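Hi R.,

Here's the input for the 4-nitrophenyl beta-D-glucopyranoside complex you asked about:
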Amino acid sequence: MEQFNLLFNRKPDASFLRMLFPNGILPLSSLPFGAGFTQDLTDSYKRYATAAPQIEGAWDKDGKGPSTWDTLAHTSGRVIDASTADDATRSYDLFKEDVKLMKSYGVNAYRFSLSWSRIIPLGGKDDPVNEAGISFYSSLIDELIANDITPFVTLFHWDVPQALEDRYKSMLDQEKYTPDFVRYANVCFERFGDRVKHWITYNEPGVYALAGYAGGAHAPNRSSDRSKYAEGDTSKEPWIVGHTQLVSHAHAYHLYKRDFAPKQNGTIGITLSGNWSAPWDAEDPKDRAAAQRALEFEIAWFADPVHGSGDYPASMRKQLGDRLPTFTAEEKKLVNGSSDFYGMNTYTAFFVRDKVPEGEPIPPEDHKGNLAWSDENKEGVSRGLESDTEWLRSSPWGFANLLRWIWDRYHKPIYVTENGTTMKGEHVTAPPSEHVLNDTHRIDFYRSYVGELAKAVKDGGIDIRSYFGWTLLDNWEWAKGYTDRFGVTWVDFESEEKTRYPKRSAAFNREYFKHLIAQ
Ligand code: PNW
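And here is the predicted structure with 4-nitrophenyl beta-D-glucopyranoside in place:
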């Protein structure tokens, strides 16, 4: 743990402060942070998020049932580096070390997800509960609380019990799936709700539906693309799977509000993914309409039913027709208003315009709203600095616009539940040098995004209650395996102990937030 001492057991020196404030040391009065930011974020700002399948490992230990992601990882050709998450960062074994690390990062809250098939190995409403799974999460929760770290718990971060996929194709069968999900939620509220006061039902239902059922690269690997996938229908299934998530989310929400909130006093909501989309040519009304449509297909797909009009956006109905499910009157009532907050995962921004010209037919497999993307707009302005991930560039300007768009459209308190980046040059063999651990691209990312967040609160009057960086540790990035490193901690995946090396961004964030709060 030498790196650890190097970075953390020393007072901020001049060079560190220069890194914090490149335009002059401690220009605190010039920083855009006011009373609102201090009050709203004092208790809830310093945190990281993770997901069970990406960090836990122990994929078949102590009674855990396989999930659809375990199946994917054990199918050849599905993960780009042919890796599995069998061990991942071994956080199942090393959770106490993770908590210690977070403590040293000045973290006061931690967002993590529960593995459904660790708690109910076969997943279904009549299937037995695995007490070893309950006791693992119970110990993690206790350890966090003992260290003054508030747990934020996500019930579903993409890992469906494989048994439910085998029984009835999971979310494709809304009627069978919903009671199974609701019973799982009930078990979690019952067993952890005395200590967990912040619940998130689903993480990014949109990415889940599109990556797993349209593109097909994610579990359960369904798509119309027969060259790669045996089953699926890109034109229909993503919309069904989206609908199932909305309705089952709403049932879990109301169950919590009715049976648990009165005595447990917690909050519950859903987290949606969404990036900013700007017109390629800001002067062209067609491009402006394309950008609005992009936001509606990506975000309002879920946010309008939950936080807004109570129905899918008109632009989606127009393109998708009756391939997009309709809400029954009862479902509409159930879904609309079913989130105490707006849970927001966001990373980047895009420039868009129409793909198929007006008047020509849009293929039924199109699931993004008929868009063509570019990295630069008509004037040649770039959407941002490149990361190590193709779709992701640093676009703090987009984050600022997106906060405004979401606030104006939905007027719900915003919890930023994920935001972060990869960077080039982190693929080295252990031990990483000081140079590699000095992750300036990531530091600049956090500096600029959190700066926009603070401006939105202070100048924009937007009610933002939290900020979670993605992510605590380099981890198993789904179908990208170990090739994408999003962590503020570098992990040696080759080592038995999955040795953790804090990157400089972890120290940066700790000090940065300390300064903001001191304001
Ligand atoms: C999120 N996009 O996924 C997930 O919640 C995390 O589990 C994941 O590790 C993280 O972001 C980084 O990828 C996303 O294309 C995947 O805009 C793709 C997008 C956004 C979020």
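One thing worth noting: The radius of gyration is 22 Å.

Cheers,
M.
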